[in-house]
Amino acid sequence: MATSRAFTLNASGEPLIAGEPIAGTTQYGLIAVQNLNYNVDFVGSGLKWYNGPDEDANPAFNFANEGYVIAVQGSTSSPDGTTAPFKFYRSADKTEASYIALASAVTGKSYASGNDAADDLDLLGIASTWNSNQSVIVSYTLFLARTGACSQDVAMYYGSNGKYYTNQSGDLYTGYLYTAPVALGDNQWSWTVTYIDNGVIINSAQEQSGCGSSGEQFLLPQ
């Protein structure tokens, strides 16, 4: 599955100034970037749009992993024979370290975090696909048990805002988390099951299960 966004130079005048905001986009300096999962009236905008690099892993383009995209005003040949008014850069993978490395390579500056890099790029009029939701994510490894399963190890993330995320892209988690089992005897265990909806704890309740062992740890952050 390919994931790419459309970019355009949303500017006019001499010297150039940013145009009116375009619904379904985010403006970085003079560059408007399509927001994922939003419909943009490309024709009605009266502007020429250019697809950015695939953000998913795509062997056809030698993209082994997902990645972030940075767009800088410049010029790049477009497949239709025209010249795009910006240059695209793509990180090797979709991690904060990789994004920071790419931003540093573009600007020649050092950054303490992905948000620091994104903020500076924004000030410089440089667009990027970094998700600011990541500012609230602190990495925890949790052991997730869905309904009907007693052990299924899945990496989870718990945010400093007290919400749960399924990945570092800021997608909120919905489902069940189980605390560590407490032995009741005869291979019976008691679990506290916590239901989370869009990253927020809705309710918790105890349930007994015949599967599980003292070695299984279904941990919530303290």
Q: Enumerate how many helices there are, as a single number.
A: 3
- The neighbouring-strand order within the major sheet is 4-5-1-6
* Unreliable residue runs: 141-149, 212-222
User: What number of structural domains do the residues give?
Assistant: 2
Largest sheet entry: 4 strands, antiparallel
Shape: elongated
Please give the share of residues in helix. Answer: 10-25%
Describe the structure.
This protein is mainly beta and 222 residues long. It has two domains: 6-130, no CATH class; 136-209, no CATH class. Helix content is 12%, strand content 36%. The protein is built from three helices and 18 strands. The strands form six sheets. Strands 4-5-1-6 form a four-stranded antiparallel sheet. Helix 2 (96-107) packs parallel to helix 3. The two termini are 37 Å apart.
Main attributes of the structure:
elongated, mainly beta, 3 helices, 222 residues, four-stranded antiparallel sheet, disordered C terminus, 2 domains
